[in-house]
Amino acid sequence: MNEPDRSARIELRQWRQFVAVAEELHFGRAAQRLHMTQPPLTQAIAGLEQALGTRLFERTRRHVALSPAGAALLPEVREVLARAATLPRLARAAAQGEVGQVRLAFVSTAGFELLPRWVPAWRAAAPGVHLELIEATGDVQLALLERGEVDAGLMLLASGLPSPGLAQLRVASEPLLLALPEQHPLAEAGAPALAQVLAEPLVIFPRRIAPGLHDAIFALYQAAGRAPVVVQEAIQMQTIVNLVSAGLGLAWVPRSVQQFRRPGVVYRAMAGAGRPRVPGCETRLVWPEGEPGPALARFLQFVRAQV
Known about the structure:
Blueprint: H1 12-24, H2 27-33, H3 38-52, E1 57-59, E2 64-66, H4 68-95, E3 100-106, H5 114-125, E4 129-135, H6 138-146, E5 152-158, E6 167-181, H7 194-197, E7 201-204, H8 211-223, E8 229-233, H9 237-245, E9 251-254, E10 265-268, E11 280-287, H10 294-306
Parallel strand pairs: 3-4, 3-5, 7-8
Antiparallel strand pairs: 1-2, 5-11, 6-9, 6-10, 6-11
Helix pairs in contact: 1-2, 1-3, 1-4
């Protein structure tokens, strides 16, 4: 054979012709199967061999057989053609959000109640769309969204405060509870009064993690004429609860954190509905404004049905 034509592009049509001849081992029958005449088919196979730089068939006047190169290529070419045949269906499925991926960032509190419900339901509803879960605090989520490294995020915000510059959907609303060391005197009360709590040392998350919620908690103290006595900051709610268990102080946590059963910690709702009122918090699904891609659009539809 001559040197292969490195610039030649081999088309799927040529591979289909190769498979037809390989399966029929007869150019005339292969041409009939392909609804073409024999001379163009013979020329097409010769061109394919020229492009590859090797013979695919051994020919005589009465006999056609696969060469070693042709025999090696045949199963691979069949697989390529089979995969190519699925591409139109795959494209339609992707356009309808039936296949693809959704990269979802989430704060740790979403892992207590929301995600354990959602993930199995999503897998049943959209088995072709992989849901990639990425645990991240709110500040990290905003950076990931800005860089396009996640498609959506579950963030924790103070009730009624908007999320910054993003499309959003409220998916959960819950009160803040007080997490106390089990041996703390206030743990014996069914529902402590706010005035009893304000002077206690406080364990809280850094403001950058959830500015709105952090500010709402501080505003609660300021409205009562007090300043929070912050003794320790921690990023994850589980860490905050662990520090409470160690006796470092009290902590305000979303109600869903009760699912984290840490020995040595009890959770208490506040007494009454006096003033100032303890703020609530919301978990919101946020995503970039504009038209979402098909997979994300389907996920948003799923979430709306859940809430």
